[in-house]
Amino acid sequence: MISPIPTRAHLRDLSEFARIQTASFPPHLAYKRWMLFVFWCFPGVTFAVTRDGEKVTGGIISDTHHGMIRIMNIAVHPDYRRHGIGRALMRSVLDARPHDSAVLMVQEENTAAQALYRELGFEQSGYLGAYYGPGRGGIEMTLRRG
Ligand SMILES: CC(C)(COP(=O)(O)OP(=O)(O)OC[C@H]1O[C@@H](n2cnc3c(N)ncnc32)[C@H](O)[C@@H]1OP(=O)(O)O)[C@@H](O)C(=O)NCCC(=O)NCCS
User: Fold this and answer.
1) Which atom of ligand 1 is nearest to the CA of 90?
2) Degrees (nearest 5) of the Cα angle 77, 32, 58?
3) How many angstroms separate the CA atoms of 13 and 97, rounded?
4) What is 2-143's CATH number?
5) Mutate to test the pocket of ligand 1, among 87, 124, 142, 143 (most ligand atoms within 8 A of CB)
6) pLDDT, block means (10 residues), the chain with 146 residues
7) Is 116's C-beta closer than 6 angstroms to any atom of ligand 1?
8) pTM of the model
9) Domain limits, the chain
């Protein structure tokens, strides 16, 4: 059954989420399993996934720094997109700390993710021309609350 309710990632979920990373990002941006393991271990990092039965359908990694939520990574399996999973993953992080503002970086050409963030109230708050590498700009988006 497809569950849009994110729950804490288990160690056994990391390989599947690494495959979703590979399917979702160019090679230099996709987190490998060992990188996901570091996030998974790190105190203060929240790592949640959604599932369809036992299959991982998406995941989100975030933390909080000086009262600001930082979304570090979100990805949904290509076969499961446009079913509200990305929104549910974002909401689970934002709703857990309803008074905190949130910030993230997104590739300037990634209009799908930007549409999701705008729908949730994020606005562009900065731009870094080479954030993702030479000629690969990153847009900073912020949700201001509180
Ligand atoms: C961005 C991403 C996480 C969205 O996940 P998703 O589960 O497909 O998103 P949802 O179904 O929850 O979409 C919620 C809303 O976001 C917007 N949206 C999502 N994908 C969109 C797209 N391809 N084009 C336009 N709007 C889009 C829409 O407003 C959508 O609402 P609607 O379906 O009712 O119109 C997914 O496309 C993904 O994994 N992309 C690759 C990885 C990535 O880019 N991560 C973000 C890096 S910053």
Assistant:
1) 12
2) 20
3) 25
4) 3.40.630.30
5) 87
6) 84 98 96 98 96 96 97 98 97 97 97 98 97 95 94
7) yes
8) 0.97
9) 2-143
